[in-house]
Amino acid sequence: MKKENMDINLLDNNQKVNYVKNVLFNSDINDALDTLLKNEKKDLGVIKIIIDVLNEDLIINRIKEQCNLSDKESSKSFVYSRIIATLAFYNKTVILNSFFKFLSEEERKKISFYEYQNKTDVSINNKTFNKYCSKYKEDALKILKLDDTEVLLLDEEKERYNALSSKKIKKQRTFIPALIVLVVVMILGTLGYKLYDYNKMISKYNGLFYPGIYLNDIDLTGRKVSDLKNIIDEEKTRIQNGTMTVNNANGDYKFTYEEIGILVEDNNIEDDLTNYNNNLSFFKKVSMIKSNKKNKTFYMKATYDEKTVDSLVKTLEEKLNTDARNDGIVVDDNHNVYYDKGANGFTLDVSKTKVKIEKALANLTEETKVEASGHVVKNEVKYESLESINKKVSTYTTYFANAGNRGHNINLASSRLNNTILMPGETFSYLKVIGPYGSSNGYLPAPIYLNGDTATANGGGVCQLASTLYMAQLKAGLQTVSRRGHTFAPTYVPKGLDATVYSTTTDFKFKNNYEYPVYIVSYVKGNYLTVDIWTNENALGGKTYEPYSVASNGGWLAYLKTIEDGKVIEIKYLDRSVYKTH
């Protein structure tokens, strides 16, 4: 049995699939569809097989190459269009109706765009096609394009009808020639209409730049060619006032072109732009007008010599080459505390960075960016737990005569207390941090109170720091573990709110009862001793604390107020102190 006379409906399913593949692969697509669809039924059995086998690369690539199509998707749309044309030619209206119902909305839209844009006989005359696709007609004509591929498809439409006519020549000798003439006339009419329309579009750009032509970042679309010199002069001035930013692992460095010693060159750019715009082909002009996308960019050139770049690279070496800086707490000159995450170290790769700079200067814009090449040394991160420290929650200052051995001892003790970290749940011991108070630890003899009398001992004066710290601790709401008052009342803090320390027998301790780390800053400025306590802003939960004392029966009672939203919500008893008189 000859292939063209075979009734595919007599084959089983596997035979049908193999037959369809054979016909599609070995025949012209128009002849293949003519052969396969002669006896198609309403259930679209053969059409569904055709669509399935189009997913096989061998079949679709064969059709793509045969019809000179750009990609697989356009090839599938082309085959769908040919199926519709074949069914329409054989007046298979019922099957054509079923085919449109079978297609997805997106597939119908793609086919509609192709048919309307090419003004095929189907789009003009077929009622079933227009029943399903007329809603896409306006959008299809809005983005109408004409290129070599489209002309080829129009030619294939003509060949399609020529091929069908030759098969029907014996039965339709008078009808088919007339149809061919009609198709050819329609094609020529379509081309003529498009050429007239495109000429009108192009004429609007006489003396103007076509869409998609740029000078650096300036869109020249629709601007007068005669104004180009002024545009170039303005851009040249703008760029010469521009900057180069060099990015690296530890930050950005910005230089003006004037600082670098760079000039902007505009040699021949006016001629290059004008010649490009004026020598565009007809279809290139049409394509640029319809797409309105960036098509061609012309750049100003930078002029510089070897010394200019070498000097810039040397400056970068001095600025960018750094050692890694580990993380930790930083206290600035104003005694403010913050967590510094540190920074990576960096060593500039001179040769690679120089190449990048030269490349950037070749396409100069108002702001040029260069990523410096080099070796990054990762910094060590150890103290992320301190990152939450962001607020000074209490401070207290006392006055002292900053002179002599006592002044020396207070300064020494303050420096040792400074930068103390107390983690959540940890207890602070004054003796461990500040002591021992002997000469071996740098302390000098100074007056102290001992066993109810005045005396001289190494470390005299450290009690003032202990009392100053005690006041700051109370104001921070931290929990007292161990505190003892002086024998004789000191003058630098309110009575009942002092703390004494001595040798290894009397220690001052308190606990960090917060969920956040605590950081203590201690410093002397002139005759003033200050202790600041820092932690997280949420540690106190919006509360503030005020220590105070009152005289009672020859002694002093100490209390701590807790204040929230401006109201006292708690008064806590701390301790009773009794002092001797001189």
Structural overview:
By secondary structure, the chain is α+β, with helices and mostly antiparallel strands. It is 43% helix and 22% strand. The strands form 9 sheets. It has a 4-stranded antiparallel beta sheet. A 3-stranded mixed beta sheet has the order 2-1-6, with helices on one face. A 3-stranded mixed beta sheet has the order 4-3-11. A hairpin with a 2-residue loop joins strand 23 (555-564) and strand 24. The longest helix has 29 residues, at 175-203. The relative contact order is 0.06. Mean pLDDT is 84; it is low at 145-158.
Averaged pLDDT: 84
Indicate the proportion of strand residues. 15-25%
- Tertiary shape: elongated
Number of helices: 21
Determine the structural class based on helices, strands and strand pairing.
alpha+beta
State the distance separating the first and last CA atoms: 136 Å
Radius of gyration: 45 Å
Q: In this structure, how is the largest beta sheet organized? A: 4 strands, antiparallel
Please report the total strand number as a whole number. Answer: 24
Enumerate the spans where pLDDT stays under 50 for 5 or more consecutive residues: 145-158
Strand order of the largest sheet: 13-21-20-14
The percentage helix is: 40-55%
